[in-house]
Amino acid sequence: MATPYDLFGTPGYEQLLAVLGGAEEALARYERAGRLSDLERALVLFDALLTRAENIDLRSAAMNGVGMVLWSRYERFGEPDDLDGAITLFREALAPYGAEVTVTTPSYWTNLSGALRLRWLRTRDARDLGASVDAVRTALASTPSRGALRSNRLNSLGDALLTLFQLHGDSSALAEAVSSFREAVACSGPGRDEGVWARSSLAEALRHHHRWSPDGAPEALDEAAALAREVLAGVSRRHRLYPRFLSNLALVLTDRHTARSDPADLREAARAARRAVAATPAGHPNLVQRNAVLATVRRLELVRAGRRATGLDVTDPGGSGTTGRLDAGGVPAGSGARGRPARRERRALRAWIRATGQAYAATPEGHALRGLALLHHGSALATKAATEDDARARDAAIALYRRAARDPAMDVSVRVGCARLWALSVLDGGGGSPADGRAAAMEPYRLAVELLPRTASYRVGRMDRARQLGDFAGLACDAAACALDLADARRPDAAAAHEGAADAEPDAVGTELALRLLEQGRGVLLGQALDARTETSELLSLVPDELAVEWRRLLPQLDRPEAAVFTSSEPGGANDPTAEDPLTGEDRHALAERWERLVESIRRVPGCEDFLRLPRTDEMLAGIGDTGPVVVVNVSPLRCDALVLHGGRVRPVRLEGLRHAEAEHRADAFLAAIRATGDHGLPLSAQRDAQAEIRETLGWLWTALAEPVLDALAHWGWPGDDSAGGPGRLWWVPTGPLTALPLHAAGRHEEDGDSLLDRVVCSYAPTVNSLVRARRREAGRPAAVRPEPSAPLIVAVAEAPGSGSPALEGVREEAARLARRPGARVLLAQDAVRRSVLDALPRHAWAHFACHAVGALSGAAAGHVVLHDHATAPLTLSDIARLRLPEAELAYLSACETTSGRREFADEALHITGAFHMAGFTHVVGTLWAVADDTSLEVSERFYAAFGPSHPFPGHTAHALREAVREIRENVEGVRENPSLWAPYIHVGP
Predict the structure, then answer these.
(1) Is 541 or 640 the better-scoring residue by pLDDT?
(2) What are phi and psi of 747, to 5 degrees?
């Protein structure tokens, strides 16, 4: 006969076990069928057990059970106290055990993880999300390697990592989430609930993988759709998670419809989204997400109806790179066709507004999706305002955008997007004057640009930061154009300004504001890199020793190479990591928190209030000095201008011949022509036509940009030459589509035609602030005069195994000529590998690369130098940018397209040339496109020959490059009329 006591003497132990079993069975019945009576029965039994039991294990099991009931009740009715109570009970269930692992504690940790993650969704408290990840990892550490328990806990870990990805845009967390879900599927048995959940979660993670992948990962969408359908086919419609599975399928299909425009996907998504909302009780916390999915479907239905009826386009207000664009006429892109829409379109628009309104109403204050609900409902109302000329809808949309943009509790990316849409909604003045509209737009534009750098946190890797900044490409340019427009509108001589008259006195406040907006909203990644490399010893001498020590400890940690995984190999990260230990996502999050706290602490010290802040305009002007004008070319659909920094002032030149849409078209046509000139499979006539297109573009650049700027400078008294009578220096800071074009080569290059190459020495800078810092860095070095460069690092790879690129016959000769220099170190062929190059770069002030390179123009490529081991260990843009090379002076990149990058990253200098500049090379010679092998050999030979006693190294770098290119253009037969051969070479630096 069984004893009524356990080993610790608990009276009625078997009866209490029976009560526990009955409670767990009642809870399981509720989870299968969703009957409230079962949930109530479970609560009664768990409470009874908790009241009577004294045994620690039974009490903890009862507390865990009540917590599960409260969690289920929260999911049913949405009462926050239920969820808070569940979390408290899970923690109390674990408290008696401390670090001890029992049969049940992993389950308690798993439950705590899920409840914390659910509460984060409501409160946005980052501590809950971090604790959720830690809790489920604790559970997994003592879970068998196969079976249902491991599948469930891997699914919980994947959910937590996916939430981290959604919060921060951390691709390492997304990659690990996908891996966790795949392992969860593999661990589950056939037909088991845990396998169903894991497949549904994997489908959702793959959908995000598609959205985040540079190449779109089309296969991920097909796998996600197959998984989502498989899940629905394998469960009863009465399953409590059936609405969730429907909603997940709808999301996958809407993304696939967006990618492929298949109407069948949209129809199926609409059915699934409607059924998911209908099957979700009022007050259920997940009704928020399901209403949002239905709203997305309604928007896509409007897009489809509008395109068929009137050509209407409605951009995705929460999608990548579409939030708040201007069209060629300077009005919001996707704002809809003017005039009354067709009936089908009106019906679809009403359905979209109704769905976004319901989603907004169902999303409580503080919820993680509140900002997106505001943004989406505002976008629906703004579309109604544009298509039906509805002033009330316009005012309501503006109110929603304003509310979200000003709310510091909102996700910062949502705030930037809403601020941008708010600005665009008021630009036209709403029936008032254009000046009124520009004035109303300045507050949201300034707010958006101010917030923009916060979207690129150190919490995520460099390419993830770039992706998030790329979603708002052109924002700073539009804000600057608005500031200039407003300044013109407020001036009494506005008509003269519109004509671009050089003697029209500019509004200094408007012009300086425009410059500050451009500096604040462009080159964010470069600014972060320069912040970490800024000479701070003078400022740090003012702060307490512990802050200075923390600063010096943190900097090398932030520059560690990025790992592709999120989880650290050691809990809490490595205790004493070296500079080469991979930086996991988890490490980055911890370091970012320390960095943010440190900078805030330093700024609270008297005298350090502006620590790492953008310099004031007068400081930038002083830093530029009088060596030559700096021209920031702002390209926006609103207007195009050159901001000229010269003589201690910032003055605008209105570029009437330059239009944003034409600049984009010409940049695309120019790059296509460049590719055609190198395509030897094309007939010679096609290659000649391509060269003609290139020459025509260079002529257009002269007429639309270079000539007006030079005329204005001449009017302001710039002589155009230096003190010795040679050509003067001129720096270009291009924006948007002009970053892909050779501004330095602008001109009419027929015999005796005028051109920049013949009149001035051109250089480039990503931002004005980067140029100021480069000049400060150069001025701070010892004033040793070196007539010629010496001690170079020469990296030469004529033919990399498996690269698929043709052999570079001139590379060996190029390397041999430079190897004669005193102190030269040559890494040739198989010696030129990633590790050797990274080890050698800090030891040489001058580096010369002669090899292939891959630019980051499209797809997943982030840009890399093609070394001997490129297939297994590519030397990437990120590898180079993270270096800290305070003594570096010149990097000569005799390689293809080192300054090419993807359009959405145009304002971030996210290319190989920019990476060398970030690393600390004061001067960088790079290329805008693929260069000819023989021409590269000639240019480098003439470049280094230009240095001498009267033209010392490295200050003469820009002159040396100009002289080399001019000599090639003038003296090599057939080169002048083929600018693709001589125009790609550029100088970046002071």
Answers:
(1) 640
(2) 155, 175
What is the spatial distance between Cα 923 and Cα 254, in angstroms, rounded to a whole number?
48
Which tokens hold the place of 522?
């462009």
Query: How far is Cα of residue 338 from the mean position of the Cα atoms in its chain?
Result: 33
Report in angstroms the alpha-carbon separations of 118 from 70, 129, 372: 13, 9, 18
DSSP 313: -
Give exposure, 385-406, as e/b (b: 16+ Cβ within 10 Å): bbbbebeebbebbbebbbebbe
- What b/e sequence results for 150-169 when a residue is b if at least 16 CB atoms lie within 10 Å of its CB, and e otherwise? bbbbbbbbbbbbbbbbbbbb
Nearest of 929, 797, 815 to residue 865 by alpha carbon: 797
The 10s digit of each residue's pLDDT in 118-152 is: 998 888 888 898 899 999 999 999 998 888 889 98
DSSP 631-682: EEEEE-SS-EEEEEEETTEEEEEE-TT--HHHHHHHHHHHHHHHHHHT-TTS
pLDDT digits (tens, 9 = 90+) for 218-261: 889 999 999 999 999 988 888 888 999 999 999 999 999 999 98
Q: Tell me the β-bridge partners of 985.
A: 927
Count of H helices and E strands in the chain? Answer: 39, 14
Rounded Cα gap, residues 126 and 132, in angstroms: 10
Apex 224 CA angle, 222 and 228, nearest 5: 120
Alpha-carbon distance of 317 to 340, in angstroms, equals 23
Report strand pairing: 760-764 vs 728-734: parallel
Before 952, cis peptide (omega within 30)?
no
According to DSSP, residue 454 is labeled G
- Give me the torsion for CA of 171, 174, 179, 185, rounded to 10°: -160
Q: Are 954 and 923 in contact (CB under 8 A)?
A: yes
Element (H, E) at 224: helix 218-233
Which range, 341-345, 440-444, 531-535, 610-614, has the best average confidence (pLDDT)? 440-444
Cα(857)–Cα(862) distance, rounded to whole angstroms? Answer: 8
Residue 457 has pLDDT above 90, yes or no: no
Residues 756 and 753: their CA atoms lie apart, in Å, by 10
Beta carbons of 430 and 420 less than 8 angstroms apart: no
Q: What is the mean pLDDT of the chain?
A: 86
Q: Could you tell me the two tokens for 612?
A: 């790492």
Interhelix angle 148-168/193-212, nearest 10 degrees? 30
Mind listing the pLDDT tens digit for each residue in 585-617?
888 888 888 888 998 999 999 888 888 888 888
In percent, how much of the chain has pLDDT > 90?
Answer: 49
Q: Which amino acid is at 861?
A: A
Task: Report which of residues 25 and 954 the model is more confident about.
Answer: 25
State how far the Cα of 58 lies from the Cα of 48, in Å rounded to an integer: 11
Q: What tokens appear for 594 in the block?
A: 């320390």
pLDDT for 785 beyond 60:
no
CB 131 within 8 A of CB 146: no
Rounded CA gap, 78 and 83, in Å? 9
Q: Tell which residue, 70, 153, 144, has the closest CA to residue 109.
A: 153
Q: Do 85 and 70 contact (CB within 8 A), yes or no? A: yes
Global pTM? Answer: 0.86
Q: Which of 187-191, 267-271, 476-480, 859-863 has the lowest mean pLDDT?
A: 859-863
The strand pairing partners of 21, in sequence order, are none
Per-residue pLDDT of 637-664, as tens digits, reads: 999 999 999 989 999 999 999 999 999 9
What element of type H or E holds 924? strand 923-927
Rounded to whole angstroms, how far apart are CA atoms 730 and 468? 32
Kindly give the pairing relationship between strand 640-646 and strand 649-654. Answer: antiparallel
Strand 864-866 to 890-894 pairing: unpaired
422: tokens are 């708010």
3-state secondary structure of 131: helix
